[in-house]
Amino acid sequence: MQQSYGSIVRRQQQLIRCLVGDYCSKDTLHLVNKGIRMQSVMGGGGPLEVEALSILRSISPVLDSTKHKGQAGKIAVIGGCREYTGAPYFAAISALKIGADLSHVFCTRDAAPVIKGYSPELIVHPLLEESYNVRDEDKTSISKKVLDEVDKWMERFDCLVIGPGLGRDPFLLDCVSDIMRHARRSNVPMVIDGDGLFLVTNSIDLVKGYPLAVLTPNVNEYKRLVNKVLDCEVNEQDGPQQLLSLAKSIGGVTILRKGKSDYISDGKAVKSVSIYGSPRRCGGQGDILSGSVAVFVGWGRELVSKVKMDENPTMLGCIAGSALVRKAASVAFQDNKRSTLTTDIIQCLGTSFEALCPVGSKSHV
Length: 365
Ligand SMILES: NC(=O)C1=CN([C@@H]2O[C@H](COP(=O)(O)OP(=O)(O)OC[C@H]3O[C@@H](n4cnc5c(N)ncnc54)[C@H](O)[C@@H]3O)[C@@H](O)[C@H]2O)[C@@H](O)CC1
Ligand SMILES: Nc1ncnc2c1ncn2[C@@H]1O[C@H](COP(=O)(O)OP(=O)(O)OP(=O)(O)O)[C@@H](O)[C@H]1O
Ligand SMILES: [Mg+2]
Fold this sequence. Notes:
globular, 13 helices, 9 strands, single chain
């Protein structure tokens, strides 16, 4: 990617300003723990609150005429089955709306025409199969075919989103487990959401110790993860500390716990994003988030490798994604009130992004 040295330095300086003193090492963990206790008493917007908007501005790439297609991001959603076609569409179209160049969906054969029908922008691969469509004797050859097909594309992707609308069919989940193992071998980041979290909660080794894995659980998914991994109940009194332990127990994956405030931890630090969102809880908002985080993780990774910073790009990606989706939800709610739907929020992604990080702003010239 061709960017002026000046613009890279400006983004680095912005990042340092928002992270210095915030981001902790092992040595300062006790200080963070102290902060965590304060946060649990104070609620959202306390000492763990991060300068999310500065991070979003810092990691968003400059738009200029030297770029070619693909440089702003290529993501793939693995999801979409007979029951759910909305979720993978929401994730994949959100990625495009915030600035990715290409967005693919790998879904089951019968979900594909439906998803294609929602949008000509998406590249849809009718590849996955559920048990009801497969004879036992064909299972081995079909899973090999699925894996071979996805592998052809794998290294082109900056991030995968695993799980929106994936369903829970055991044969399909076995195939997706193989895809995840291959992605991991190729160092491709993965955002795991929805039924992907169901899979991972039951097979934690798929992500354990993989620093490029991001889990984005909602309230139920978080409860199941805590039960399974920490073998206890969710502790609301010391929520951030428990999140830190959970991320650490899964070997330093990044977890974005969605809720009234979003809490994000990679097992070393905990941050919160409490920008006002929307009181509407219609289905699909988490799918917007997973697609958005995938793009920001790709951008965060690129920036961190360019300026050789010791920051975790998955933390940066989660913080930026959380901030943008919450802002878009609040804008959509202002316009639509009780009738706010996921498609309304998607429509507000562009204007919200522009309000937070204008294309013509200083760092974009
Ligand atoms: N339009 C669409 O196609 C959408 C599809 N979605 C997909 O739907 C699938 C399931 O996601 P959900 O978010 O509904 O999954 P959840 O596991 O959060 O919830 C499933 C349902 O079971 C209940 N439930 C599950 N576990 C529970 C527990 N331990 N305690 C209390 N209640 C519990 C929940 O209240 C909910 O009604 C995913 O693949 C997801 O991506 C959602 O993203 C929403 C939109
Ligand atoms: N109580 C809340 N107040 C404000 N924002 C919230 C609240 N709960 C969740 N959110 C925000 O809504 C978005 C989706 O979170 P949610 O918990 O609804 O995900 P989900 O259940 O996985 O959604 P989906 O229906 O797509 O599966 C996130 O951006 C999160 O920050
Ligand atoms: Mg969800």
